[in-house]
Give the backbone structure.
Amino acid sequence: MHPDAGNQSYRAFRAESARSAASALAAASGYLIGGLTMSLGAQIAHDLVGSDNAFVNGVAIALFVVAAGVLAEPGKRLTPRAAITVGGVLSQ
């Protein structure tokens, strides 16, 4: 066995742990944004659109969901690191 074999194994484990932590953070933030959109969507749409009409507010929420779906399609091709970076920058 190579003298540095244990150290290489440890570095590989730490790298995998960092990727797992980043993936968990990305998934958790996705669920957080989805939960906020579902629970506060009507109020946010009312405030942004300025309408008391439920249909108009529903259309505003639907457009938000459609926009998210359209942006998700090219986002599938990104590497995890690039997806997290782009998502963080675009959500500011």
Notes: Helices lie at 5-49, 54-75, 80-90. The mean pLDDT is 81. Residues 25-90 form one domain.
